[in-house]
Design goal:
The chain is of the alpha+beta class and 270 residues long. It has two domains: 125 residues, 2,3-Dihydroxybiphenyl 1,2-Dioxygenase, domain 1, CATH 3.10.180.10; 127 residues, 2,3-Dihydroxybiphenyl 1,2-Dioxygenase, domain 1. It has six helices and 16 strands. The strands form two sheets. An eight-stranded mixed β-sheet has the order 2-3-4-1-5-8-7-6, sandwiched between helices. It has an eight-stranded mixed β-sheet with strand order 10-11-12-9-13-16-15-14. The chain starts with a strand and ends with a strand. The model has no long low-confidence stretch (mean pLDDT 92).
Length: 270
């Protein structure tokens, strides 16, 4: 399974698109997606894309916003031979929301988010594949997708059932009060996090329940990027980037980005 895109649902994409412009990302012109009653805007990030959907009348996107509010909606994996993959996963006990659906551009199936620890996973077989978008010099890239869960070992077992390699669980940095493990899906990773005490992940689970929590973008200069983001009027979570040992990180306040939490990270030299 290869991560194809990360889907985001918002009522008004303008603040989030403005942040992406400040970061220097390439934004396609929005177009209607009549299948789900939404306007679709694609951000050409490497190595996977970001798809932003906002409602255009009645439909699934409007219902999602009414029920859960804005945020990261789903992650899509591109697979070969989707009907056979779905049949095999069903044989391992994985539940799906209906069967395989055919669209002009792909085959599609959705896993049951109640089994997938609150996160919505789309499996797709895209007819016309293109290679990963190559980043321009200095352009941010997608690093990982954060996923808040209550039971880390149960979530780890679920992704192993999907046939994806998963690291052993361990503690995250103390400031987040969470334990974590990484799902090594190509070409980016999913970071599963479960609270180990009071903190941001415990609050997220109490407010929204388990599910997709944040999107991390890798940047080359966290100091310069943070200054540019602040000067554009966005609030950041820390006065100075947080040193996590392996990376320097910063978070953009979700109230400034349509309730979508964006992490910025600069890898540390080892």
């Amino acid at each position: 399974m290869l991560v194809h895109h990360v889907g985001i649902v918002v009522r008004d994409p303008a603040p989030l698109l403005r942040l992406f412009e400040v970061l220097g990302l390439r934004i396609q012109r929005s177009r209607p997606n009549t299948n789900v009653g939404a306007e679709l805007t694609c951000i050409e990030t490497a190595p996977v894309s970001i798809e932003i959907r906002c409602p255009a009348g009645e439909g699934p996107i409007a219902r999602v916003l009414e029920k859960r509010g804005p945020g990261i909606h789903h992650v899509m994996f591109d697979v070969d031979g989707l009907p056979g993959v779905v049949e095999a996963l069903r044989g391992r006990g994985v539940r799906f929301l209906g069967g395989v659906q055919e669209h002009p551009w792909q085959l599609q199936a959705w896993m049951d988010p109640r089994q997938a620890h609150g996160g919505l996973i789309e499996l797709g077989e895209v007819w016309e594949r293109t290679g990963p978008c190559r980043p321009r010099p200095g352009e941010p890239t997608v690093g990982h997708l954060g996923w808040a869960v209550r039971d880390l070992e149960a979530a780890r077992a679920f992704f192993l059932t999907l046939g994806l390699p998963v690291d052993r669980s361990g503690p995250d940095t103390a400031v987040f009060a969470a334990d974590e493990t990484a799902v090594r899906c190509s070409p980016c990773t999913i970071s599963l996090k479960a609270p180990s005490g009071p903190g941001p992940f415990a609050r997220f689970l109490e407010k929204r329940g388990p599910g997709l929590h944040h999107l991390m973008l890798r940047v080359q200069d966290i100091g310069g990027t943070s200054r540019a983001v602040r000067e554009a009027g966005f609030r950041l979570s820390f006065d100075e980037p947080l040193d996590e040992g392996f990376a320097l990180t910063q978070f953009v306040h979700p109230k400034d980005t349509c309730d979508v939490l964006i992490e910025l990270g600069e890898a540390r030299q080892r």
